[in-house]
Specification:
The complex is a heterotrimer.
Chain A (H helix, E strand, L loop, with lengths): L4 E10 L4 E10 L2 E6 L8 E4 L4 E4 L1 E6 L12 H10 L2 E6 L10 H14 L3 E6 L13 H7 L3 E3 L8 H11 L6 E3 L4 H4 L4 E2 L2 H6 L3 E2 L1 H18 L3 E3 L5 H12 L4 E5 L1 H5 L3 H5 L22 H13 L4 E2 L28 H10 L5 H8 L1 H7 L19 E11 L18 E11 L2 E5 L9
Parallel strand pairs in A: 1-4, 1-5, 6-7, 7-8, 8-9, 9-10, 10-13, 11-12, 13-14, 14-15
Antiparallel strand pairs in A: 1-2, 2-3, 5-16, 16-17, 17-18
Chain B lengths: L38 H18 L13 E6 L4 H13 L3 E6 L11 H11 L1 E8 L4 H8 L3 E7 L5 H15 L6 E5 L6 H12 L3 E5 L7 H5 L7 E4 L2 H4 L5 E4 L4 H5 L6 H8 L3 H4 L7 E3 L12 H4 L6 H28 L7
Parallel strand pairs in B: 1-2, 1-3, 3-4, 5-6, 5-8, 6-7, 8-9
Chain C lengths: L4 E3 L1 H18 L6 E6 L3 H16 L5 E4 L29 E9 L3 H13 L4 E9 L11 E5 L6 E6 L1 H4 L3 E6 L8
Parallel strand pairs in C: 2-3, 2-4, 4-5, 5-6
Antiparallel strand pairs in C: 1-8, 7-8
Helix pairs in contact in C: 1-2
Classes of the chains: A alpha/beta, B alpha/beta, C alpha/beta.
């Protein structure tokens, strides 16, 4: 059921359309009906967005909804509700569920659940191999027809180069990308954080940066050899970025994404926490794969995002239950619950002058769409063009707030940002023409 | 850039009463690692150990300092000597000592570490002495246990009481370690003993050389040698041992050969064994030390292990006194904190 | 306003001399005597007493030091010292031990010393000599030899300074302000 929603007087930024100025946005019948000045709409729900920013709803190319199979960590309802609070109107759901999303019936389940219970749009990503074991190709054609927008075995890499080669060749028939979690199996073995001074200090086994770089190099070579499209998930190292940059220059079909935490947090957060403390805490909420890296790597990621070597931002939202993190560091699960902090965390880049706000919005809206070709499945997604899906987000880039995981809509409270102050908040989210998230003040007055 | 704190005294929240000016500060109710110890704090532990040694020398080595306190040794890893050392230390101080053995990963085998620690606290543990195969485990315990936690060795990370007794042993012979050359040779990458010794020796002004094959030097140290101002990395033992005042050999484990870190024990012992010939290049009365247990014939020759310069037995003896000192110091802090209503902090 | 001076350097000197005489008189000589000073300031006091006794009696009395830090299982008002020293005791079995301390207050320190001494051996008898007795005993303990009785309030701080430890001899009473009283 969709309403008429009028969002007025906001600074409307539509990167796809190249516009940035004060305007009103009218959403009707589930679509963008009009964008202009002084729109009048009787009976519409009105949001006064004076002093706020209005943009297309964010698109997340990488989310773990954990449903089916791991509903104690998250399910389609709670995960998409978290997405809505984070300003995301579309999430691409990774297939490491149980059973894995490696056949049509699981995809159909996910789409049915999403239809009934999701707050925002869910686009399924099918597995590359059966049961994500990395050995036999899954029925990629069937998955494509069922609605998958890409294929991936994430959280695992496709270990075997020949399997990856076949996957790239085969998937190109359907024009869909393979998303790879790039990690060399033997180099990264047993590593629980980035290998460097901090891991030495903490006495924890590290994953060297070379483990990612070597795997990225392999995938790039295979993409070029096969003509297939490889999308590198959650890039985190300077070395991998250089490989990707060079490949793009050569015209290879390589795209890449980066997470908000890899753009802002270093391995020191594992040791001392994100709150700037001085005592060792071994923060399991900072345990993630790929791990938080060195300051040099973080810097390289920011530059690459700004310049375009990395195409877009994706959250890699990975919720876990409390007991899976309340244990010894080696035994803790990998992952950060990131949907609800993504915008606030990325705003640090704007505040530091590394990226301008319109560019940041671009990297979170039309850029993931272009990288994965999502507009072939959902026309005009990630834009505010007339007729585009009614996916709009209202942002307050100035608003400061403190991260309180207990108040997350996500079941996953695992974030290293507990108690940290962020600047930049999602005030309201409209998905498919429905208001799916709204902060109290946003109802009438907007501020 | 992370660096070692040297002379600053770490001041944490405290509600201890005011003390006379000449008294040193000890605000810790936990002992997790030596990485934030000042030289003053280390000195205090050394002096306290002196007093404890005197107690051990009596005909009836018993004092009521920890009477009414229950010391629980919670060991997830086997270790006869360290456990016995702590148990004895507690008993000499009049504490009740209880040993609890847990095995392997607590998550897969039943009670989580946090639950175990809370249970022990509920039983009445005043001090938890923990040895665990996972780095960082005692930090987790300290956050959730409302009692003192002493780290008896966690994974690859730290073994503070070992480093303290090593320091005590060195000082007994050398007086001050400032400016003295200490060589630590062996599997540095997997050694929590090496790591803790690094902190304490650096804080006390010793010149430390770490010697190992490149595969056994931790990656983080190779990359950032400059992070540790007084520490030299050397892969050639003959060079490293020149003029050393102390040579500390670390145990070389079979798994390292199986893990591909070194081609074999034969090559390792040829290049890195502390034997008489090499020892001759060190200072005339250089101390030979080893945290034990020793693999004679591998990292240390039989002759040197039992020779005149070997201080291995003294290390063990000093271990009891050092652990008594540590038990007493953390308990004292926890008690005064409880008396003034505060919560135990590190 | 300066803290009142209870004993000047001369007062301290005279008290030490008088106590030395009292000890010898009470024990009918200096044989079998052992002086044990309590850390910290009891130790130089014990040494002074021994020197005084040697000067008029011609007998060198053995002197030892006792640190009772490890015997205090209660928490005194002002917090236990972090520094504990190794104790050094001569043979005490069967001897007439005189414990020497600077200030006698609640008596808990002395009680701990009694425990310690009994752990070391079986003294024949134990006596107590103090420079200042400030009252407020919490245990049935009394000093055999007292330099000066100084009535104090619980809020007062009695500060003894000795040449050997503080550079001068004096005893002062400092009134502690409301805000500084530990709870």
């Amino acid at each position: 059921m969709s309403q008429r929603i009028l969002i007025s007087n906001g600074r409307v930024i539509d990167p796809a359309g190249g516009s940035d100025g004060i305007a009103d946005v009218l959403i009707e019948g589930g679509r963008i009906a009009e964008v202009g000045r002084s729109i009048v709409a009787d009976g519409a729900m009105e949001i006064d967005a004076s002093g706020l920013v209005v943009a297309p709803g964010f698109v997340d190319a990488h989310t773990h909804l954990r449903d089916p199979g791991y509903e104690y960590k998250e399910d389609i309802a709670s995960g998409t509700r978290a997405a809505a609070r984070g300003g995301f109107t579309t999430v691409c759901a990774m297939p490491n569920t149980d059973p894995a999303m490696d056949n049509r019936s699981v995809i159909e389940y996910v789409l049915r659940e999403a239809q009934a219970r999701a707050y925002v749009r869910v686009l399924p990503i099918g597995a590359v191999t059966k049961r994500r074991e990395g050995k036999e190709l899954a029925e990629l054609g069937d998955l494509a027809q069922a609605g998958c927008v890409a294929f991936s075995d994430d959280g695992a890499p496709v270990w075997d180069a020949t399997v990856m080669r076949r996957a790239l060749e085969y998937a190109s028939a359907f024009g869909l990308p393979i998303i790879d979690h790039c990690e060399d199996a033997s180099l990264a073995k047993d590593g629980v954080m980035h290998e460097g001074w901090v891991s030495t200090r903490l006495g924890l086994r590290g994953q060297p940066a070379a483990a990612e770089e070597a795997a990225v190099a392999r995938d790039v070579a295979l993409a070029e050899a096969t003509g297939g499209h490889i999308h590198i998930a959650h890039v985190s190292t300077r070395g991998a970025i250089e490989v990707i940059r060079a490949a793009k220059r050569r015209g290879a079909r390589v795209t890449a994404e980066v997470t908000p935490h890899h753009l802002t947090l270093t391995d020191e957060v594992v040791a001392f926490g994100a709150g700037g403390g001085e005592a060792l805490i071994y923060d399991t909420d900072a345990k993630v794969n790929p791990p938080l890296r060195s300051a040099g790597d973080v810097d390289a990621c920011v530059d690459a995002l700004a310049e375009g070597a990395i195409d877009c931002i994706a959250t890699d939202h990975a919720p876990h239950a409390v007991i899976e993190k309340l244990c010894e560091f080696d035994d803790a699960a990998f992952g950060i619950s990131g949907l609800e902090t993504a915008f606030g965390l990325c705003m640090r880049l704007v505040d530091d002058g590394r990226v301008e706000l319109p560019a940041l919005i671009e990297r979170m809206t039309i850029a993931p769409v272009r990288a994965l070709g999502l507009d072939r499945h959902v026309p005009q997604i990630g834009t505010l063009a007339v007729g585009a899906p009614g996916d709009v987000v209202v942002l307050d880039p100035e608003r400061e707030w403190t991260v309180e995981p207990e108040r997350f809509a996500s079941k996953g409270k695992n974030t290293p940002l507990r108690g940290v102050s962020l600047r930049g908040r999602v005030v309201a989210t409209v998905a498919g023409g429905r208001m799916v998230h709204r902060m109290e003040e946003a109802a009438v007055s907007g501020r | 850039m992370t660096s070692i704190r040297t002379a600053e005294t770490r001041v944490a929240e405290t509600s201890l009463p005011e003390q006379a000016a000449e008294e040193q500060g000890w605000r810790r109710s936990h002992l997790l690692d030596l990485d934030d110890f000042s030289a003053d704090e280390l000195d205090l532990v050394m002096r306290t150990t002196d007093a404890m040694k005197e107690v051990l020398s009596r005909e009836v080595p018993r004092v009521p300092a920890l009477r009414g306190t229950t010391v629980v040794t919670l060991f997830y890893e086997n270790s006869t000597r360290t456990r016995a050392s702590f148990e004895l230390a507690g008993k000499v101080l009049g504490a009740d000592a209880i040993n609890v053995s847990a095995s392997g990963s607590s998550v897969s085998k039943g009670e989580s570490l946090v639950d175990t620690v809370k249970t022990l606290r509920a039983i009445g543990a005043g001090v938890l002495v923990m040895r665990h195969n996972r780095s960082g485990a005692p930090y987790l315990a300290a956050r959730h246990a409302d009692c003192s936690v002493i780290n008896a060795g966690d994974g690859l990370h730290a073994h503070p009481t070992q480093a303290l007794l090593d320091l005590y042993t060195m000082r007994s012979q050398l007086g001050d370690v400032r400016g003295k050359k200490v060589v630590i040779v062996g599997d540095i990458a997997h050694s929590r003993v090496a790591r803790s010794n690094l902190w304490s020796l650096a804080a006390m002004g010793a010149e430390v050389t770490l010697c190992a094959p490149p595969t056994l030097i931790p990656a983080g140290l190779r990359a950032g040698e400059g992070e540790l101002p007084r520490v030299r990395i050397e892969t050639d033992l003959d060079r490293a041992i020149e003029g050393a005042d102390v040579v500390m050999a670390l145990r070389m484990q079979l798994e390292r050969m199986q893990g591909g870190f070194v081609p074999g024990m034969r090559e390792y012992s040829r290049l890195y064994q502390v034997n008489g010939e090499r020892l001759a290049r060190a200072q005339k009365n250089a101390l030979v030390m080893h945290p034990g247990p020793m693999n004679e014939g591998v990292e240390i020759s039989h002759e040197v292990a039992h020779g005149l310069q070997s201080r291995v037995e003294e290390q063990v003896t000093n271990g009891v006194a050092v652990r008594m000192a540590v038990l007493w110091l953390v308990t004292r802090t926890a008690r005064s904190r409880n008396a003034s209503g505060g919560k135990a902090a590190s | 306003m300066p803290d009142p001076l209870i004993m000047s350097a001369d007062d301290v000197r005279r008290a030490v001399t008088r106590i030395a005489h009292e000890i010898v008189e009470h024990n009918r000589g200096a044989s079998e005597l052992v002086l044990i000073g309590m850390q910290t300031r009891g130790v130089p006091l014990a040494q002074r007493l021994a020197r005084a006794i040697e000067s008029f009696e011609g007998v060198r009395v053995p002197v030892g030091s006792l640190d009772v830090g490890l015997y205090r299982d209660d928490l005194p008002e002002r917090g236990p010292s972090v520094n504990i020293q190794p104790s050094e005791l001569p043979e005490i079995a069967g001897k007439r031990v005189v414990l020497v301390d600077d200030v006698l207050y609640t008596g808990r320190t002395v009680r701990a010393a009694l425990d310690a001494l009994i752990d070391y051996g079986r003294p024949g008898r134990i006596q107590l000599a103090v420079l200042v007795d400030r009252g407020h005993r919490e245990l049935p303990i009394r000093a055999d030899f007292v330099g000066k009785n100084v009535p104090t309030s619980r809020r007062d701080d009695v500060q003894v300074r000795l040449e050997e430890t503080d550079g001068e001899d004096s005893v002062q009473v400092k009134a502690v302000r409301e805000a500084e009283v530990p709870s």
